[in-house]
Amino acid sequence: MESPGSVSRCPVRQQRARWERKRVCTARELLETERRYQEQLGLVATYFLGILKAKGTLRPPERQTLFGTWERIYAASLELLPYLEEGHWGPGLEGFCSHLDLYTQFAANAESSRTTLQELLKKNKRFRRFVQLQEGRPEFRGLQLQDLLPLPLQRLQEYENLIVALAENTVPNSPDYQQLTRAARRVSETAQRVHAIGQSQKNDQHLLRVQALLSGRKAKGLTSGRWFLRQGWLLVVPPTGEPRPRMFFLFSDVLLMAKPRPPLHLLKSGTFVCKALYPMSQCQLNRVFGHSGGTCGGLLSLSFPNEKLLLMSTDHEELSRWYHSLTMAISTHPELFSSHRSQKS
């Protein structure tokens, strides 16, 4: 017969005890944060969405763009919370997964929501005064509407962390193990899709900004469909003569070299003229010098079928970042970048 001491030292039982402690802590955190999340969802639904509907301050399309699937996300939380409070983690979370598409839709609308809010606050005096009045309510604890709108996307990341941890710390013979495992997988897949959508939206912002910096007939449509990686000044070292500063824009498939317009140009001051476009699929990259640390900068050699570029920087760290980005553009297949767009669509 085993003594109590030998049982307590059993590795299997000790591991199960650790799992159970982590599971209890994770479950408690999930429940407590869901209550707070639901409260904040409800505040926006009541004091913004509900009143805006009643007053007609915004046209329905504006309201829809601003809040997206907020009300349905709130309803999904109202449905989930009783399961969590009763300890029915598996059924509750697996049922909640049927609403995950609301978060994908919300993410796809996030950039439109952000720009719509900025425009309305700037141009619609009645809406601006309404928002200021509602934000001043003590229930919001100093939070502004722009702070609250990203809440569902932040919560999705919390869902992933907590539900995965809950599944990992549930013993396989538990009644809700399979349900938690399926829920963890589906939430993780949704979080990945939402992350890809966010990356694509950031890229779209970069492309619009870069396109605005380029002028001239050659610049039209240059950034369309591309994935932005890096931009910055580098010195082009010619076979003879002094190095010339040029602005470079690196995309997933091409390196664009541009020259600044004269500061006194009447219409295009502050923009750049596209001088050359280099296909990264045909590039051979080498460091001429600047392999080790230091303050002396370095030199990169980029060889293309019909031309060779020598690019110099006096900043060693900046040159290293360029080397890393160029290497990624050369070695990464374009379809990997375009997959972000397929997630968005």
From TrEMBL:
Superkingdom assignment: Eukaryota
InterPro entries to which the protein is assigned, alphabetical: ARHGEF39, DBL_dom_sf, DH_dom, PH-like_dom_sf, PH_domain
Molecular functions per Gene Ontology: guanyl-nucleotide exchange factor activity
GO biological process: positive regulation of cell migration
A GO cellular component annotation in the UniProt record: plasma membrane
Ranges where the DH domain occurs: 22-197
Domain PH: 227-331
Record-linked SMART domains: PH, RhoGEF
Protein name, per record: Arhgef39 protein
Organism per entry: Phodopus roborovskii (Roborovski's desert hamster)
